[in-house]
Design goal:
Blueprint lengths: L19 H5 L7 H26 L10 H7 L6 H5 L5 H5 L3 H4 L7 H15 L8 H8 L1
């Protein structure tokens, strides 16, 4: 009959002692899918920020004497005109908005969002506010 000693009673797969750093910091599972997703989101946010800066830099200047509030009033924005106008520090911040930026404006209806997007697009293409025919032909001839 074989007698087991106290030291031999421990269950070990090898006789080597486990290094202290390995016991403290076990290997963790690397989630490659989450890593790729976060990398994609980071690249998209950097790209969006760059496009936003370019749009701000090349934004069309406001018509003579116009402010953001006057723009909203001229397009018949509706309720919250002053509140929405106060959200923007400069004309360039306002006029360079994309549809995605417009969805982030709080407390406006879906109809107001669509209308705002439409009028900003028309303004950026030089189609609003309406100009005399000779000036229109000079722009697009």
């Amino acid at each position: 009959a074989r007698v087991a000693s106290a030291a031999g009673a421990r269950r070990q797969f090898s006789d080597e002692e486990v290094p202290k750093y390995l016991a403290r910091y076990p290997k963790k599972y690397f989630d490659f899918k989450a890593f790729r997703q976060s990398l994609k989101e980071k690249k998209e946010s950097l790209s969006d920020a760059e496009v936003r800066e370019i749009r701000r830099e090349y934004a069309m200047p406001a018509p003579e004497g116009w402010t953001v509030q006057q723009f909203l009033e001229r397009m018949d924005f509706g309720d919250n005109t002053e509140d929405v106008a106060n959200l923007f520090e400069t004309w360039e911040d306002f006029i360079s908005m994309t549809a995605k930026d417009i969805t982030r404006i709080p407390n406006i209806s879906v109809g107001q969002r669509r209308r705002l997007d439409r009028f900003i697009t028309l303004f950026n293409h030089g189609l609003w506010p309406h100009v005399p025919a000779d000036q229109f032909h000079d722009r697009f001839a």
